[in-house]
Automatic annotation (TrEMBL):
It comes from Buteo japonicus. GO terms for biological process: ephrin receptor signaling pathway. ANK repeats lie at residues 14-46, 47-79, 83-115, 149-181, 181-213. It comes from the Eukaryota. GO terms for cellular component: cytosol. The keyword RNA-binding does not apply. Pfam families: Ank, Ank_2. This is Ankyrin repeat and sterile alpha motif domain containing 1B. The keyword Repeat applies. Transmembrane segments: none annotated. GO terms for molecular function: ephrin receptor binding. Keywords: ANK repeat, Repeat.
Length: 362
């Protein structure tokens, strides 16, 4: 009624209440005032997000604590959004270790899986959140068991080249030869060109003869995706299989294949013209591979996922601490590391779309 004033839990077009906005933007005092006037912590927006999801996503540990312990309707820490993610998923994905600690203390269930069957540990491993990975496996070591054929934390960390996470998982007792439909973690690391992770897995004694759901070993997959990194990883695997040693140097010169030109000695810096020709040649090869993928009826999603991971190698080397820094200079540094590769990726997607259009017309 007009005499009672506006409803404290009224929502906007996105389903946000005032408490959602205050939690998302870190306004602690306003959160407390809204709770004083009986704002509900258990109202979801249009995508199923509760205020505690937004506070966890932001990494605001104070507001998370307030939402859990204050007000007439305490936040239920295991509430899930439309993607079946809890607040712990949000905090783990972005590496907010203090929020993760609070949620674990409040008995948030870390075994809940989202729509992609990912646990909070899976997301932390996928994005290289080392501290969060250590916290979760210490509290719930059973999460490292191979209980899904889709993926494991080890597979996800290996795919994105997170060496420290891979080592922590293995040291905590995770089975290095655990298999999914995509094979072993070695399949993932090799397919995405993560040489150092391949070396770690080999040194741990992973079985190189494991096959994926299509019956392919790691070497079989490498033959299907010829590249400089594939040749390097194949040499590493051959050395390991012959000698049991995974010590092939990353700088070890590879024999020139018949269809490739030998690499110039590093002592002689190439001229700008040579650099330009080399880039043009590599781009041509990549476009040929894209057209071949189209002919094999690979989906655009699969191709774009593979290429984006390949061309974001430099970005994956940015440390967690650097990404967590909010300074503008850090943001500029990160952007500068990605800009060149994003432009190439955009051109590749455009060209792939052109091939696709031509084939449809034919």
């Amino acid at each position: 009624s007009i005499w009672r004033g506006p409803n404290i839990n009224c929502t906007d077009s996105s389903g946000y209440t005032a408490l959602h906005h205050a939690a998302l933007n870190g306004h602690k005092d306003i959160v407390l005032k809204l709770l004083q006037y009986e704002a509900s912590t258990n109202v979801a927006d249009n995508k199923g997000y509760f205020p505690i999801h937004l506070a966890a996503w932001r990494g605001d540990v104070d507001i998370v604590k307030i939402l859990i312990h204050h007000g007439p309707s305490h936040s239920r820490v295991n509430e899930q959004n439309n993607e079946n993610e809890t607040a712990l998923h949000c905090a783990a994905q972005y590496g907010h270790s203090e929020v993760v600690a609070v949620l674990l203390e409040e008995l948030t269930d870390p075994t809940i899986r989202n729509n992609k069957l990912e646990t909070p540990l899976d997301l932390a491993a996928l994005y290289g959140r080392l501290r969060v990975v250590k916290m979760i496996i210490k509290a719930y070591p059973n999460l490292m068991n191979c209980n899904t054929r889709k993926h494991t934390p080890l597979h996800l960390a290996a795919r994105n080249g997170h060496k420290a996470v891979v080592q922590v998982l293995l040291e905590a007792g995770m089975d290095v030869s655990c298999q999914t439909e995509k094979g072993s973690a070695l399949h993932e690391a090799a397919l995405f060109g993560k040489v150092e992770v391949v070396r770690i897995l080999l040194e741990t004694g992973i079985d190189t003869n494991i096959k994926d759901s299509l019956g392919r070993t790691v070497l079989d997959i490498l033959k299907e995706h010829p590249s400089q990194q594939s040749l390097q990883i194949a040499a590493l695997l051959q050395e390991y299989m012959e000698t049991g040693n995974a010590s092939v140097s990353e700088e070890r010169p590879l024999e020139c294949a018949e269809h490739q030109s030998c690499i110039l000695s590093p002592e002689v810096p190439p001229s700008p013209k040579a650099k330009s020709e080399a880039v043009t040649g590599e781009l041509s090869k990549l476009l040929d591979e894209i057209k071949l993928c189209q002919e094999k009826e690979y989906s655009f999603e699969d191709l774009s996922h593979t290429i984006s991971d390949h061309y974001l190698d430099n970005f994956s080397k940015v440390s967690e601490e650097e990404l967590m820094t909010s300074g503008s200079q850090t943001k500029l540094n990160v952007v500068s590391k990605m800009g060149y590769k994003d432009n190439i990726f955009s051109y590749i997607c455009f060209t792939y779309g052109t091939f696709k259009k031509e084939i449809v017309q034919e």
